[in-house]
Each structure stands twice: as structure tokens, then as C-alpha cells.
Specification:
Elements (H helix, E strand, L loop, with lengths): L2 E7 L2 E6 L5 E5 L13 H23 L8 E9 L4 E11 L5 H11 L3 H5 L5 E8 L6
Parallel strand pairs: 5-6
Antiparallel strand pairs: 1-2, 2-3, 4-5
Helix pairs in contact: 1-2
Length: 138
Amino acid sequence: MTSKITYLGQLRTESVHLQSGATLVSDAPVDNQGQGAAFSPTDMVANALGCCMMTIMGIKARDLEIDLVGTTLEVTKVMQAEPRKISAIQIQIFSSFQPNEKEQVVLERAAFTCPVFLSLHPEMDKSIVFHWGNSQQH
């Protein structure tokens, strides 16, 4: 098992990561009868994409002896109404590191090979924009 999820009532769940004991609470979003007091399950999908992309880029960066500490990702999830599902995930990646052309290709390719990216439906719009040499996020 990876995790154990308990329904807390009022459209909230608590997940326990069994290997580490870390916990995570989810809440239904305001536009779907919830309080929006925590990540919604669909927020977690969008966030998981950003975390996964950054993790795989971090592995490649370590191999290349590049420091990406401080890199930030701005994640936007777009929902569609019928059927209710994520229609798009938009991610902007801001890094003060300025890679050379080869490093940039390696890092960006790595991001697009992360397991979450590859697991999402191919018809889902995934817009990823890299801002190298720029730590100025919105």
C-alpha cells in the first residue's frame, strides 16, 4: 500500500503516506460544495505535475552539477464543467539559473518525461513555460 485515506466528513479526507507517516488533508473546492480550506483532489493532480517535473529536473541538475535551489513553479488548474474534469494545467517555471543550450535541452526534456506528465491524458492541455535566468514570478 502507498497510503491510507480516511473520510473526515464535510467533504474532507486525510491521507497518510504509509512509508513516512506524513499526512495531507484534502477539501472539496468552493465551486463544488466544499470550503476550499485545503488542496482539492484536482488541485493535488495539478500540483503533483509540478512537483514531479521539478523532481526529475532536480535529478538531471544534480547529474550536471547544476544548482536549481530556489526555482519556483506557478501552477494553474483549469476545470471544465461537463463532464467535470481538469481541462488544462498551466505551469510557469522560474529559475535564476541560466543554462547553456545543452543544459536547457536536458532539463526541459527531463521535465516532460516525469511520470505524472506521462500519466495524464494526452488530450489534457498541458502548457509549460520555462523562464531561465529569471526568478521573478508573478
